[in-house]
Design a protein that fits this description.
Elements (H helix, E strand, L loop, with lengths): L11 E5 H15 L3 E4 L1 H5 L3 H10 L4 E6 H13 L19 E6 L5 H5 L4 H7 L2 E5 L2 H14 L3 E6 L14 H14 L2 E7 L12 H18 L6 E3 L3 H6 L8 E3 L15 H4 L5 E6 L2 E5 L4 E2 L5 E2 L4 E6 L16 E4 L2 E6 L7 E7 L17 E5 L14 H8 L3 H6 L7 E4 L8
Parallel strand pairs: 1-19, 2-3, 2-9, 3-4, 4-5, 5-6, 6-7, 7-8
Antiparallel strand pairs: 1-10, 10-18, 11-14, 12-13, 14-17, 15-16, 15-18, 16-17
Helix pairs in contact: 1-3, 6-7, 8-9
């Protein structure tokens, strides 16, 4: 049955909040340490408000976004819901009822721009958002904003331990640490955390993560030698959380696993990890038609019917985030039938093969589906009441040559997110 959505909608993404809460509990038990729910990119395409509040109910004490704009939006949502902000001060306890927010990508500003009323950094301070700092220029801008605001900024220094993205290199970190200590002494900065990213945590035996951890330990020595005492050290995301116990420091960042997807299905599938996919993408067929053998389908005629065929029209396309690489490959389930897209992915629609229209003896075969029947592109085939033929996001990733992260995150905004269930409130 299709979930309730606005009357004009032609598709929907059903978000199973009970599955989300289940995944949160599985990951929290494995980690055995406080955890941050990564809700960047609209919670990996699942809808940031419903996901964030469900994760808090399941025990998250931190929420993390990449972009500062996302964190500001999230703070406004939490304020509107009456979620308490953390108490000020270095000894304040962070709880699911008063979570901390961390953003790790902020706009570049000069100190003068940062100090101006209404600047992005001033907004971050007003919203009690912790910020990542990798460079002296970022630190100087944030210190200027804090002086102008009359309140210290909460900072997580980021060390580059081998990813070569954001983060201070081993050569640059000592100067950044010394400058951070001076800003702390001035009262404009509170170095709350030290953190980094793992580049190959989904490869349990590569040796890369051990190298990252060694570099992180060196970075910790550097910042402590400068007189800093970061209280929250975090290195592990889902891959580290699952497969590298030594990287579970003061905090872990639960990302893709929350959404019921494995960081690497070749190492362990979602089911093997005890995780349940949270998103199901579905749309009602808008047309079913018969075409003769040899008839080409969709732009370019890249697929032709091998026999008389029944086709179904699904109102989802690349403007909704379906990869064009899914041409004649993207799996779809309709009424227990597992089939695929045929022909190219169009902007707003795809065609699926519903099977032969004639039997081996030339007899007519009725259409196996009708307009209005739900076509499921991906979801959890093991969920209660689910079509067992349902493909997964991993199935889509495999045929498109990508990863499940991209499949769910790129789903377009015009596909309504429909939360179902409610998770399981944490007891305290």
């Amino acid at each position: 049955m299709l979930a309730d959505v606005p009357a004009a909608a032609t598709s929907r993404a059903v978000i199973d909040l009970d599955a989300l809460a289940h995944n949160a509990r599985v990951l929290a038990r494995t980690a055995g340490t406080p955890w941050l729910a990564v809700v960047k990119a609209d919670a990996y395409g699942h809808g940031i408000e419903a996901v964030a509040t469900t994760c808090l109910a399941a025990g998250a004490t931190w929420l993390g976004t990449a972009q500062l704009a996302e964190a500001l939006h999230l703070r406004a949502l939490l304020d509107a819901r009456g979620t308490a902000r953390p108490q000020p001060g270095p000894d304040a306890v962070t709880t699911p009822r008063s979570p901390r927010l961390l953003a790790w990508l902020v706009p570049f500003l000069t100190p003068k721009q940062a100090a101006a009323p209404g600047s992005a950094l001033r907004q971050a301070l007003d919203a009690d958002i912790d910020l990542s700092v990798s460079t002296l220029a970022q630190l100087e801008a944030l210190a200027a904003a804090a002086r102008a605001a009359g309140r210290p900024a909460r900072v997580h220094l980021k060390a580059d331990t081998g990813m070569s993205r954001a983060g201070a290199t081993a050569d640059d970190l000592p100067a950044l640490a010394r400058a951070s200590r001076r800003a702390e002494e001035e009262g404009v900065l509170d170095v709350v955390g030290l953190w980094s990213h793992l580049s190959r945590a989904d490869e349990p035996s590569s040796g890369s993560t051990e190298e990252h951890l060694e570099r992180f330990r060196h970075a910790e020595d550097v910042v402590r030698a400068a007189g800093l005492a970061p209280r929250v050290r975090h290195l592990a995301a889902t891959g580290g959380l699952l497969w590298h116990p030594d990287t579970r420091l003061d905090l872990v960042r639960a990302g893709i696993g929350l959404y019921g997807l494995s960081p690497d299905p070749s190492v362990a599938t979602s089911a093997e990890l005890g995780l349940r996919p949270v998103m199901r993408v579905e749309a009602p067929l808008v047309q079913v038609k018969r075409i003769p053998a040899g008839q080409a389908v969709s732009y370019g005629g890249t697929w032709t019917a091998p026999t008389d065929r029944w086709l179904g029209l699904v109102p989802l396309g690349y403007s909704d985030g379906l990869p064009r690489a899914a041409a004649s490959a993207g799996p779809v389930a309709v009424g227990g039938l597992r089939t695929t897209i045929v022909g190219k992915v169009c902007m707003d629609q795809v065609v699926i093969d519903l099977g032969p229209a004639v039997g081996p003896d030339g007899e007519a075969v009725p259409a196996p589906a009708a307009p209005g029947d739900p076509a499921v592109l991906w979801g959890d085939p093991h969920a209660e009441g689910a079509d067992s033929a349902t493909p997964t996001a991993d199935d889509w990733a495999a045929v498109c040559g990508t990863i499940s992260y991209e499949i769910v995150t790129r789903l377009g905004a015009r596909v309504p997110r429909v939360p179902t269930g409610g998770g399981e409130p944490v007891t305290r």
